[in-house]
Amino acid sequence: MADSRLPDLTLIIPASPIPSHPSTAVIERALDSLLTHLPDGTFRTIVCHDPPSPSLPPDRINAFEKYLQRLERLTVTERYRRLDLNVTTAPRWGHLAGSLGHAIGHVQSEFVFILQHDFFLTEHLPILDLLEMMRRHPEVKHLRLNRKANLPRFWDGRTEERQRFFTERSFDGVQVCQTLAWSDNPHLARTEYYTDLILPLVGDQQTFPENVCDPLNTPESHAQFGTFVYGAEGRAPTVGHIDGAAYIPPSRFQRALTALRGGLRLRTRLKALLRR
Fold first, then answer.
1. Backbone φ and ψ of 3, nearest 5°
2. Number of folded domains that form the chain
3. Are residues 169 and 263 in the same domain?
4. Are residues 169 and 270 in the same domain?
5. What is the pLDDT of residues 214-266, one digit of tens each?
6. Half-sphere exposure of 207 (CA within 13 A, CB side)
7. What distance lies between CA 6 and its chain's CA centroid?
């Protein structure tokens, strides 16, 4: 059987200790969305964890270790075979920047798709077409998936300069919007974009890369950063966000209550059908 792996792309899922651990519910939402909304084929996926910060209490550290054990068991299940999951943890706490730097060091593909563990795709993503478009148009260096509608507001339009710059463009029929907003929300980029530009800019700072890169992105430097948002102006969001730092998994009682309500709704629909 021919190898269906996509050699030009590595999926990177940066993760970190969150209050819902040892539950794997948050990251499973991300993984399941990839299975549902990416094209067929096998993807090499690196799940790279930022280790606990020195200030994290012992019970949270213990929960994180149990979470890692559960996640390791998930990697060998048939359910996630197509994602070819590789779980790793950075050698020291470094925030998202440190986690990404560690993950990029394990990448050999031309492109990376970065999806933080508490984000998930909400619709089909023609990722192979997007890679081909980025090859033909190297000015598109950082292609972000928006969690808000594609409008010059919020991150993309918080200044008049950004509002004016936000413009719809088309590359080989792929609609995008140029923006000055550099964000580490889900995005596609070349691996060398990280090794040659983003990681050197961030250096050893323990922070979100966007805290460093976003203020540097101006009309004059846009050609260097190459920031675009996937989709035409006004397009609905293509990713959702759980906010792992605030997520609390439902209790057994809440899960049972949800199942009971679902069963009651189904029974009501069946009775309505039988009365027709």
1. -75, 125
2. 2
3. no
4. no
5. 999 999 999 999 999 999 999 999 999 997 555 455 545 444 444 455 555 55
6. 14
7. 18
Gyration radius of the chain's alpha carbons: 20
Contacts for 14 with CB less than 8 Å, ≥ 6 apart:
48, 49, 50, 96, 99, 100, 103, 114, 116, 117
Instruction: Read off the pTM.
Output: 0.86
Tokens of 149: 């509608």
Instruction: Give me 26's structure tokens.
Output: 């948050």
Residues 143 and 168 in one domain: yes
Question: Are 93 and 53 spatial neighbours (Cβ–Cβ below 8 Å)?
Answer: yes
Q: How far apart are CA 125 and CA 39, in angstroms?
A: 8
Do 142 and 229 form a contact (C-beta atoms < 8 A)?
no
Around Cβ 207, how many Cβ atoms within 10 Å?
15
193 secondary structure, DSSP code: H
Please tell me whether residues 201 and 269 are part of one structural domain: no
Contact 186, 113 (CB under 8 A): yes
Say if residue 219 is in the same domain as residue 117: yes
Other C-beta atoms within 10 Å of 271: how many? 9
> Do 20 and 244 form a contact (C-beta atoms < 8 A)?
yes
Strand 174-178 relative to strand 227-230, pairing = antiparallel
What is the token pair recorded at 10? 């590595």
175 and 76 inside one domain: yes
Domain of 201 in residue numbering reads as: 5-245
Tokens 């950075």 label which residue? 90
| CATH number for 141 | 3.90.550.10
